[in-house]
Amino acid sequence: MPRSVNSVASRARRKKIMKQAKGYFGRRKNVWTVSKNAVEKAMAYSYVGRKHKKRNFRSLWIQRINAGTREHGMSYSAFMGKLNKSGIELNRKVLADLAMNNPVAFKAIIEKVK
Fold first, then answer.
1. Residues contacting residue 112 through CB under 8 Å, at least 6 positions apart
2. How many domains would you assign to the chain?
């Protein structure tokens, strides 16, 4: 009995990978083995990148809150400690947005915390 190979599914799999490799440089865009490796690597980088994005934004928010609190004579760590003790449950994203775009409201929070 002859060997059965599902060439339709194989071609579809390859086509999917080649479509993802569209726009790559050199052989990465049109040679199967090279593009498969390039796409796998790209997927790994994109997975890690999604985690790094969260870290970077948290870091940015902390810097913005720190800049806002220092204008009112307080450090970031002291502000966050007092914020938690006072029971105000605002996350860093919201606090950073207030510090940047609504300094009056941010000052009111700092006064309430003090």
1. 86, 88
2. 1
